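User: Design a sequence. Structure:
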């Protein structure tokens, strides 16, 4: 197992790369900020264009976790990890999961791993055999909360969409509202289930044909192409796949009133928030609206306490979003800038 410290070039507290030749594991853990507590965040398995792309992703994602955890009111800092896969769609091997577990253990609790794209509860459970610094694996041990974080993420996003709809469209229900969902994975599919139950009309896409068919057959969703989903003439666009999808070259083509979804790092650059606001579209900052999963995962990790705590924290997502929307309207600053400032204030006051 070969560890290399990559920290010097970043404003992160610690960035470590692990290469394990026997298993083929190539992973990076980025610990952004631990002022509020140990760094917690998901482990993403993805096929990157190269190590630089993986590094850029993990640095951005871990900073987002610091801000997310702060605004969610959690006693944890921000971190994230990535496992580089050689080919898209391949499964992670047990040997790689065990090597990754040893890597997390080597960090001694400075980083606590959870689920993210490309990793599921089964994978986390295998990692958990080699380190205790894992969460989102066992709902039974946490009084029914914890375990797979995706349903709580989806619930938080649903509540966030309702808050945005109330603020922007002056409506208190979702009956008949159109929502375009990009990505039907652990969060996106569950979100569709919630939205469908509340009477929303769904437009969906995914790269996985089976998931598209399931959404069409189960929710009566309209299916559109991968390149069309963000440009639908809908009330809400809900990005629930990968990040970086909102950028300066596509903002002119948006036709929705609200962007509110689970995907991390939706804005390719910070100034895209102003371009979205300039189109009179309300953007729910991603790391605020998608905090439901980390709330449940952190509850499981801390073990004990009042289960009511999770529901109150998830309800707090709506409160924080509303505050951000109001401040944005009053100040004329975009919602993402307001959210960043709010998070930095919470961390500075700690
Ligand atoms: P997932 O891997 O289960 O699902 C992602 C889905 O997106 C897959 O179905 C995949 O096929 C699809 N997809 C990938 N690229 C696509 C594209 N270009 N167009 C359309 N679909 C595409 O991941 P997830 O756990 O559902 O997470 C989704 C997003 O939400 C990620 O950005 C993740 O970081 C974020 N998030 C997840 C959680 C959680 O609790 N799982 C919490 C917070 C944030």
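Assistant: Done.
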């Amino acid at each position: 197992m070969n560890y290399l410290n990559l920290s010097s070039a970043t404003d992160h507290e610690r960035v470590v790369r692990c290469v394990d030749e026997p298993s083929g594991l190539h992973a990076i853990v980025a610990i952004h900020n631990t002022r509020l507590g140990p760094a917690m965040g998901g482990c993403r398995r993805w096929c990157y264009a190269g190590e630089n792309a993986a590094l850029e992703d993990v640095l951005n994602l871990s900073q987002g976790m610091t801000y997310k955890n702060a605004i969610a009111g959690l006693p944890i800092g921000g971190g994230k990890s990535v496992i580089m896969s050689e080919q898209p769609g391949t499964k992670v091997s047990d040997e790689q999961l065990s090597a990754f577990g040893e890597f997390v253990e080597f960090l001694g609790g400075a980083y606590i791993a959870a689920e993210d794209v490309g990793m599921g509860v089964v994978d986390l459970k295998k990692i958990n055999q080699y380190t205790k610094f894992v969460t989102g694996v066992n709902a039974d041990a946490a009084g029914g909360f914890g375990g797979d974080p995706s349903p709580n993420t989806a619930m938080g996003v649903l509540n966030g969409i309702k808050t945005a709809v109330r603020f922007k469209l002056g409506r208190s229900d979702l009956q008949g509202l159109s929502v375009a969902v990009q990505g039907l994975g652990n969060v996106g599919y569950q979100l569709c289930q919630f939205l469908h139950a509340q009477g929303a009309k769904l437009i969906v896409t995914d790269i996985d044909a089976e998931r598209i068919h399931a959404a069409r057959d189960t929710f009566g969703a309209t299916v559109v192409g991968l390149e069309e989903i963000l440009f639908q003439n809908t009330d809400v666009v809900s990005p629930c796949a990968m990040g970086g999808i909102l950028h300066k070259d596509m903002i002119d083509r948006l036709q929705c009133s609200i962007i509110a979804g689970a995907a991390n790092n939706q804005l390719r650059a910070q100034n895209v928030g102003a371009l979205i606001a300039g189109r009179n579209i309300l953007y729910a900052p991603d790391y605020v609206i998608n905090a439901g999963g980390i709330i449940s995962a952190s509850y499981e990790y801390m073990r004990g306490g009042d289960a009511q705590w999770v529901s109150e924290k998830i309800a707090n997502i709506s409160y924080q979003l509303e505050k951000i929307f109001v401040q944005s309207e009053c100040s004329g600053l975009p919602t993402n800038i307001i959210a960043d400032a709010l998070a930095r204030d919470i961390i500075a006051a700690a």
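The first helix runs from residue 51 to 71. The chain is about 40% helix and 15% strand.
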